[in-house]
Amino acid sequence: MRKALVVVTLVSLVAFALQFVFAAVGAFTKPASEGAYALHSVTGMAVIPVLILLTTLFAVLAKAPGRLIGLAILPLGLVVLQALIAMLANASTDTAGASTPFGLAIGGLHALNGIIAVHVVVSVHQAARRLADPTPAGASAVVGEREPA
Amino acid sequence: MTTGSLVVADLVIAVLATAGWLGGGAASAARRRRLALGLAVGALLATVARAVTITALARAGWWFAAEKVLVAAPLSLAGVLVAGPRLLRPRGDIRSAAVPLLFAGYAGSGALLVTVLHGYPVSAGAGLLAVAGVVTATAVSWRALDARPSRGLSRAALVVAVAALLTGTGLAVAPGAAPAVHDHDYREARAVGEPTRRFTLTAGTATVRVGGRDAAAWAFNAQVPGPELTATVGDVLAVTLRNRDIGRGVTLHWHGYDVPNGQDGVPGVTQAAVLPGQEFVYRFRADQAGTYWYHTHAVSDVGVRMGLYGVLVVRPAPVTGVDVTVPVHTLAGRALPTPRTEPVEAGVPVRLRLVNTDSTTHRYALAGTPFRVAAIDGSDLRGPTPLVDTAVLIPAGGRYDLVFTAPATPVALFVDGRAVWSTGAVSTATGGWPSLEPLSYGVAAAVPWARFDKEFTLVLDRGLDLRGLLPRYAHTVNGAADPDIPPQLVRRGDVVRFRIVNRSLVVHPWHLHGHHVLVLSRNGAPATGSPLWLDSFDVRPGDVWEVAFAADNPGVWANHCHNLPHADAGMTLHLMYG
User: Fold this and answer.
1) In which order are the strands placed within the sheet that holds B412-415?
2) Closest among B309, B189, B212 to B252, alpha carbons compared
3) Where do the DSSP E strands lie in B154-296?
4) Which of A30, A70, A91 sits opposite B333 (nearest CB)?
5) Inter-chain residue contact A31 with B332, CB threshold 8 Å
6) Distance from first CA to last CA of chain B, Å, rounded?
7) Stretch (H or E) spanning B153
8) What confidence category does residue A141 fall into, taking pLDDT thresholds of 50, 70 and 90?
């Protein structure tokens, strides 16, 4: 179960990396349109939440410490917040539908919150690896090179 | 503060309160006493602030506050009652405050999810599901924090969670209102006489030149916009629609033209979509003068965006002076029409027919001359006064006719700051101009009805729609999404008043087929200007519009948001004559 936890956290990490790629796809698609962010939306609102729930479930089943379980579920809150930030940023336009400085400032928080979420997922992954292979701290370099099963 | 910004402020405060409680809970679990207390006090203050925003929203209209009063307030209160006393007893192990603080956070999250995913109207099912979630999350946290609850408490929590989950699910999946009954016996066109104006529109894929580049488009007669159809009042139009290769089908909807139901061009409601190789002939009498447009109503979001639209102008008499149509559209990310400059002699009367064929509002500014708004959505205004340095905001699907007498100096029309039509070089910055308020423009007249036979309220929102094959985050009307929104039933001869409330965070340009509605009031303030007979109007976030119409055109009529992606995502219902 602990190995499964490591695997699912790694998959989450990959999904988060792809999420940044999909954001770039949306930003660079010409002509610009809402549809350009379809991949980003689906990954963010369906794939990632499912992975977070799986991670939490595996953490509970693996009898991980409460701190790790809390850390595993935390990205779910950040993802909900992320969707709300996107909604607010899209809604903060002037009467003719053009973006406003306020809306763009809110939109900036979307990027910052994304960075925070990735850091949390990285911490979860590292904690999961430590849990799967509790080697003393001095041997951490060896742990770092090993592929998770 | 407008109701729209109140809705946003309330949402932001709710998020802050929830984040504060959850953060405080996590901090106390990690024995960070000061951080935990600080976050909890912040959350408490935000919760108190929310009492103010919820009260203000309830005063603006129950629709804006319903679920906040009935679900969020009790949950937040429970959170404060459980977490608050722990804050007043700061001594002892701060870790013991973790569960109460997390409970308050889960209660806040549950309420937030009810607002964002469910909205209006409140349902006991959604409320109970939120309670089940809160109790379960609290129980799980309690166990995870190794501060196991007593047996009795554990059992009580289990019973409450299971009961709430079962009842909530039962209520949520219980069959709601009967789905809309669509009229499939497409009505025959009533006898309109021998056609005097004949047109043929052939829909097909095409490559068109826009902004100096080739773009893939769907076009009528290989041009975007399609041919401009013109007629004089009294003409009988016969328009043959052919589909060459648009696989998903096409139709013609006469936007703003109150044609007989069988000619309205809504696939699956007034006719079947015209598939490749097929044709359909639309016949109707041109008895309304004014500026209108036509577009496909089959896969309308994609179809219109790709270019299946054109202008329909019906004139009361032959043109005198200069008469220009300006259909604004965004094709493949580029703005249409191509800018045009034509010198106009001083003293010549000019009429600019502005059409917005996009899904979002555009801002039009006429620089270099005073002008009047002669008509909106095809209907002449009463006593329009001259305007200077004023912009007009045209909703998706809307039309404004601007008239002026050409001065000796150049004049230019700007759309969102881009010059699209001019008589010479004009370099005026129009960005700072105020926008026209149509509800107080022109001379008032009495409302033609003394009583209303029917009343409807449409509350626009977003919500999770689980009735389809795949769950979707739909644009909803009264908590349901197409095709599950019950139709509005009227009888011929009824005078119908309907109210449109926008609870969501985005603009919804509302469009009723087959009828023009008279604007009665917006946000409680009665319309004081010329009577406004509209077919497309922007209901902004937090707005409450009251409009009325005479049910004088029998049939089944689409009644939808003209931001076509929204219509596609559920915001479509039907008006039916019984």
Assistant:
1) B340-341, B418-422, B412-415, B362-367, B391-394
2) B309
3) 197-210, 213-220, 229-232, 236-243, 253-255, 279-285, 290-295
4) A30
5) yes
6) 42
7) helix B151-173
8) very low
Laid out side by side, the sheet with B372-376 consists of B334-336, B322-331, B349-356, B399-405, B372-376, B379-380
CA-based nearest residue in chain B for residue A80? B113
Sign of CA dihedral B242, B245, B251, B253: negative
Chain A, chain B: beta-carbon pairs less than 8 Å apart: 59
Q: Which residue of B has its CA nearest to A83?
A: B116
Q: Is it the case that residue A135 has pLDDT exceeding 80? A: no
Averaged over A113-128, what is the pLDDT?
95
Q: Do A95 and B144 touch (CB under 8 A)?
A: no
Q: Are strands B309-315 and B229-232 parallel, antiparallel or unpaired?
A: parallel
pLDDT band at B255 (very low <50, low <70, confident <90, very high): very high
Comparing CB atoms, the residue among A45, A70, A91 nearest residue B506 is: A91
Distances (CA, A) of B269 to B178, B232, B492, B555, B569: 17, 29, 19, 9, 18
Give the 3-state secondary structure of residue B534: strand
Taking CB atoms and an 8 Å limit, are B144 and A69 in contact across chains?
yes
CA A35 to chain centre: 21
Q: Is B528 on the interface with A (CB under 8 A)?
A: no
Calpha distance A99→A96 (Å, rounded):
9
- Taking alpha carbons only, the member of B499, B513, B404, B512 closest to residue B460 is B499
Strands (E), chain A: none
Answer for the pair B221, B227: CB distance below 8 angstroms, yes or no.
yes
pLDDT, mean of residues B295-323: 93
Phi, psi of B352, rounded to the nearest 5 degrees: -105, 120
Is B192 within 8 Å of B283 (Cβ atoms)? yes
**CB contacts, 8 Å: A37 with chain B:** none
Q: Which of residues 63-122 of A touch B (CB under 8 A)?
A: 66-67, 69-70, 74, 77, 80-81, 84, 87-88, 90-92, 95-98
A-chain CB neighbours of B22 within 8 Å are 77
* Model confidence pLDDT, tens digit, residues B559-574: 999 999 999 999 999 9
Which residue in the set A66, A91, A95 is minimally distant from B505, CB to CB?
A: A91
Percent of chain B with pLDDT over 90: 76
Q: Which of A76, A87, A90, A123 to mutate to test the interface with B (most CBs of B within 10 A)?
A: A87
User: Phi first, then psi: what are they for B487, rounded to 5°?
Assistant: -70, 155
CA distance B276 to B282: 17
Q: Look-up: residue for tokens 């061009």?
A: B265
- Residue the block writes with tokens 């407008």: B2
Phi and psi (nearest 5°) for B444? Answer: -70, 160
Q: Which residues lie below 8 Å from residue B112, measured CB to CB, with a gap of 6+?
A: A80, B11, B14, B15, B18, B72
Residue B481: per-residue pLDDT? 92
Chain B residue whose CA is closest to A81: B15
Per-residue 3-state assignment (H helix, E strand, C coil) for B133-146: HHHHHHHHHHHHCC
Taken in order B120, B124, B125, B131, the sign of the CA dihedral is positive
